[in-house]
Amino acid sequence: MKKLLFVIMSAFALLIGIYPLIYVFVEHRHTFLGSKSSELLQSLIWKTAFFAHVIFGGLALLTGWRQFGNSFRNKYIRLHKSTGKVYAIAVIISSVSGIYIGIYANGGLISATGFVCLALIWLVTTVLAVVQIRKGNIIPHQQLMVYSYACTFAAVTLRLWFPLLKDLTHDPVNSYLVVAWLCWIPNVLVAYCINRNMKIEN
Hints:
This protein is an all-alpha fold. Helices cover 80% and strands 0% of the residues. Helix 9 (154-169) runs antiparallel to helix 10. It is globular. It starts with a helix and ends with a helix.
């Protein structure tokens, strides 16, 4: 069962990880950018932050999923460390830019608060995970990375929850407000359960 869930998670991570390519091949008015005001789209700072967020967020999704699994880590420890560095840098860039663009989230204060909280937790857990491994604290590092990737995976769960809620409620505006929180809170709770089991096993 664990292997099946891992395969499903990996497939979604790879699929959504390449999502930023949509901004290369599809006209922006047909993408998420089409929901933004012309004034915001003319802001160089906002556009830079947006593309930094989606590109490096995609990179974090693509690299982070392979960091889990004891057999892989033990067999390819140098690759694990190198990939981990790429992941951490990608998260730091994507989360910091995510804090900025989160302020301008569709839906106003409720959704903005949800996305900014997500970006802050994502940043803090990742930085603390790096600090812990530099100190040689492997278990705290692993637990913090579970929380970090739970936040990374919000990119996937957002794209699953939003169309589902929108179809069920026929209310895209309020659905987006809910998804700003729903895309990451259950993920963090799942991460908590995983880490709790990890403590018991150790």
